[in-house]
TrEMBL record:
DNA-binding region boundaries: 34-53
Signal peptide stretch: none
Protein name listed in UniProt: TetR family transcriptional regulator
Naturally occurring in which organism (per UniProt): Streptomyces avermitilis
Keywords: DNA-binding, Transcription, Transcription regulation
Domain of life: Bacteria
Pfam families on file: TetR_C_43, TetR_N
All copies of domain HTH tetR-type, residue ranges: 12-71
A GO MF term: transcription cis-regulatory region binding
Length: 195
């Protein structure tokens, strides 16, 4: 809910506290956390939460947008790195590591085209565009196989994360994500073509 005017300093602080509490609550417990509980964790009254976010859906979307925007900033920073291949794999490793602990955010990002507000769609589009450039640069230097595109990588990573959560392999928590990263390297496609 935006009036177009900048928030006063205390209102801005309250909004940030609400977003921080909601981000932690949604990541740990899912979207079923009541708004009143988020208000309690943020140290504000329920009315303050409702003034900033009239529904749980608007609060959840604000958390998703904030997360997407942070990932986009991180991807843009990776673009500035001197080694495109290392930067791509480091960014992808970070994304997969976070997605496993932030299940609802990962699910929302995966579905960010369907039923989401235009702000969320724009944030998701910005991340997809930046990620595509990051991938293309890594492919250009031969660090990533050239027969995949950004949509392929997203689908493969999400599938691996879903399978990883279902397996609940506590002895090897990053095994499937690691296998996915290895499959994106050029020698994986060369091995497949020889079979």
């Amino acid at each position: 809910m935006s009036t177009g005017r900048p928030l006063r300093a205390d209102a801005r602080r309250n909004r940030e506290r609400i977003l921080r509490a909601a981000r932690l609550a949604f990541a740990a417990e899912g979207v079923s956390v009541p708004l009143d509980e988020i208000a309690r964790r943020a140290g504000v009254g329920p009315g303050t939460v409702h003034r900033h976010f009239p529904t749980k859906e608007t609060l959840f979307e604000a958390v998703v947008v904030e997360h997407l925007e942070q990932l986009t900033k991180d991807a843009q920073a990776a673009l500035q790195a001197g080694r495109p291949g290392s930067a791509f794999f480091a960014f992808l490793t970070r994304m997969t590591g976070e997605a496993d602990t932030k299940q609802d955010l990962a699910d929302a990002i995966a579905k960010s085209g369907a039923g989401m507000e235009s702000t969320t769609q724009r944030a998701a589009a910005g991340l997809r565009e930046t990620f595509a450039v990051l991938l293309e640069r890594a492919q250009h230097v031969g660090a990533v196989r050239t027969d995949v595109d950004a949509e392929d990588v997203q689908a493969i990573v999400l599938a691996a994360l879903t399978a990883q959560r279902q397996r609940a392999d506590t002895d090897r928590p990053d095994r499937l994500a690691g296998l996915v990263l290895d499959c994106l390297r050029p020698n994986a496609s060369a091995t497949e073509s020889r079979r």
